[in-house]
Amino acid sequence: MNPFQIMSEPIRRRIIEVLASGEHTAGNLCDVIVAEFGVTRPAVFHHLAILRDNGWVDIVTDFTTRHYRLEPDVWKRLDAEVRWLKRLWKRRIGSLSGNDTDPRLARQPESRRYPRGAAGTVKGLRGKGRRANRLAFQSSWPFPGSEEGDDDARKS
Q: Could you tell me the residue range of the domain that residue 130 belongs to?
């Protein structure tokens, strides 16, 4: 997950702010987030799991207590994203200095791109064309205001 996607959620951003001050127990984190945002404890643990799965936090278990702490390379990854955006900003189209005449140069390197199917393609239909993807979505996802079997609403 992109660092900006992780930081875009206010609850996760607040968890990161609290963990930036040092290591904290799961109970302390839950108390702070529940008091500030009015969410349930399972919701806090859901956000902690997202942070853990994406390599932002580390868990140290001490018998029955879990201590959460930020991974040290989090700041490097976030800084790399900011540097990438600054580089694009300096080379933006319309600026007087450092202007790229070829907009393709502003593309992300292969290692930074999202997987090919992330933009709305259906698994198994890659390479079959946009019409196949559209038809697969239309057949699997009914439109609002139409009946599931209504074929007229699906034609476009």
A: 121-156
Query: Residue 68, Cβ neighbours under 10 Å: how many?
Result: 21
Q: Are residues 17 and 66 in the same domain?
A: yes
User: Do residues 156 and 101 share a domain?
Assistant: no
Q: What distance in Å separates the CA atoms of residue 41 and residue 33, rounded to the nearest whole number?
A: 9
Spatial contact of 33 and 39, defined as CB atoms under 8 Å apart: yes
Q: What is the DSSP letter of 103?
A: G
pTM of structure: 0.58
Provide the CATH number for the domain around residue 47. Answer: 1.10.10.10
Q: How many domains does the chain have?
A: 3
- Going residue by residue through the chain, which has 156 residues, state the pLDDT in tens, using 9 for 90 and above: 888 899 999 999 999 999 999 999 999 999 999 999 999 999 999 999 999 999 999 999 988 899 999 998 988 988 999 999 888 888 776 655 555 556 565 555 555 544 444 444 444 445 555 555 555 545 444 444 444 444 444 444
In the block, residue with structure tokens 């302390």: 28
Rounded Cα distance between 139 and 137, Å, is: 5
Task: Note whether 66 and 95 are same-domain residues.
Answer: no
